[in-house]
Every structure is written in C-alpha cells, then in structure tokens.
Amino acid sequence: MAQFRELYFPRGAGGHFLASKCLWTSGDTMEIDNRNEYFGNMIKVTKHTDNAVFGPYKKFDIKTETNKILPVIEKTMSETVTGQPERVRLFHELKKFYDDGLSGYLDLIDGIFNGIEAFKYLDQPTWEVIEDYFIQCKGYYYRMFENNNWSSDSISHKHPHAMVSSKLVLPTNMKTMAIEVDSVTDVYVRLLADMKGDELQEPSFYETSHEDWHNRSARLSDETISYRKIFLDNDENEIKRLYTFFNNLEYFEENRTNITKVFREYHNSNIQTLKTQSVYVPKEIYDIF
C-alpha cells in the first residue's frame, strides 16, 4: 500500500541537512558549500514495482489540462503584483514540461508546487482557475503513487494545504510533521536563510518575529517538532523523533552518539558561519550565541 510521510520546515531551518541525515541516513546524497548549506534530493520514492502506470486519473488528463492552463499563466507574467519573477519561472518550467512530452514529472513537481503562492496575489477569478489546475495536478501526483503502489518520504517547506489549497483532498495513508519555531528561533532561521542565499535585508527586518506565519504548516500537521530542541538544545529524544518518523529508528539507535554529535556540529557551524560573514545579529537572538 502506498504511504506518504512529509516533514515541513521553515526556510533556513535545516531541511536539506535533515534530509541527508534522517531521510537518507547515509549522508552521501548531499553537497555542502562553504556556508554550511546542504544541497540534494529531498524526496525518497520507494517503488514496489517498476511497471508504472501513467495516464488520466478520474477525468483529469494532465496533458490536456496543462495545455489549457499555460496561456492563463502566461498572461500573469506581465502582472506587476507580488510574485512576478516566480510566475515567470513557473511558466517556463511548465512549458518545458509540456513540450518535452510531460516527462520527468517527479523531478518537476517539487519546484512547481513551491512557487504556487506567487499566483495567490492575482485577482480572485484568475487565481481560482490556476488553483483548480494545481489541486488537480497534486491529486494526480498522489493518485499516481497510489495506483502504482509507490511510497514517498519527503521534506519540503509547506503543508499541501498551505502550499496548494485547503480544498485539496489528502491521501488517507499520509503522516505529516512540521518543525516549529518560537519568536527567537524564527528570527535566527530567517537570518541564516538570507545569509546563505545572499538575500540579507535591512537590520530592522530581523527585529520582529514572523513565527505565526512560519508556523502555518505546524498548525496543519499531525505532529510538530521543536527547532530549538533539535539544534539549540541538541535534545536526543527530539532528534530521535525525526528518525522514527522516517522509519529509521533502528539506524538512530545504533548511531545515536554520533548522530547527536553531528547535529551539534551542524548548529555550531551555522553560528560560526554567521560570525565569519560579519552578519548583523539583532539583540533578540543574542542568547543563541
């Protein structure tokens, strides 16, 4: 039976690091740059059969519907409201997907869904047409797994109801967990993310917490897990929960000492990177240092 396990993390909260340790365990699927930023695969697909079945599911033909939505999305590229660069990117990715015969769906899907929010700033009628397409598209994704008896373990930024739409019907055999931040760790992970992405803002931007916004997925998920406990406190039991969630408890039990050490070193390296980059540190997070 197909199963879905999804972990959500706020930007800057170490999602790629967690994928390398808790999802893949071997750690050799990720690259690391000089700012302690990890890069690699965030989804692990278990295929119980190689005889995959693709095609229209429940009256949704992805080829036909993608061809219909492309001109709608293309028109939004000239709209100057928030999200214009992302809408341009998504149009070109979707157009290439269609022109290539709709191949590489699994590779495309994560990048596409991460950008849907850019369309939510448009007028309501336009958004509703685009929303319906992406609801059907995500449903197609889930049904493809269910019909082929595939399972998916993944780490991404947002719960599907926050990323796509609250109207989306989720699979019954799905478990969700989200990393939760508090007012201090929210500022800290935002600072980390912007430093690593060369997107640092004015100092005043980091003097106010956005924890309510960044905890949206936590409110929608089956379980929450504390960023503070995982990284600042190096809490063994909280780290263990991550491995348990991805069915890697046995690996954790066999390597718990080294695992907690690696998590501590990752956090310390983030702190050191902020220091060496001479990043402005607001007083709200002095205690972390």
Largest sheet: 5 strands, mixed
Instruction: Tell me the number of strands.
Output: 7
Topology as a string of helices (H) and strands (E): EHEEEHHHHEHEHHHEHHH
Low-confidence regions: none
Helix content: 40-55%
| Domain module tally | 2
Query: What's the tally of helices?
Result: 12
Distance between the termini: 46 Å
**Overall pLDDT confidence:** 88
Radius of gyration: 20 Å
Q: Given the C-alpha coordinates, what overall shape results?
A: globular
Helix/strand class: alpha/beta
Strand content: 5-15%
Structure write-up:
This protein has 289 residues and is of the alpha/beta class. The protein has twelve helices and seven strands. Strands 4-5-1-6-7 form a five-stranded mixed sheet, with helices on both faces.
Can you give keywords for this protein?
12 helices; two-stranded antiparallel ribbon; 2 domains; 289 residues
Give a brief rundown of this model.
With 289 residues, the chain is an alpha/beta fold.
What topology does this entry show?
Blueprint: E1 4-8, H1 15-23, E2 30-32, E3 38-40, E4 43-47, H2 62-76, H3 84-99, H4 105-113, H5 124-148, E5 150-156, H6 160-163, E6 174-180, H7 183-196, H8 211-214, H9 216-220, E7 223-226, H10 227-232, H11 236-245, H12 249-276
Parallel strand pairs: 1-5, 1-6, 6-7
Antiparallel strand pairs: 2-3, 4-5
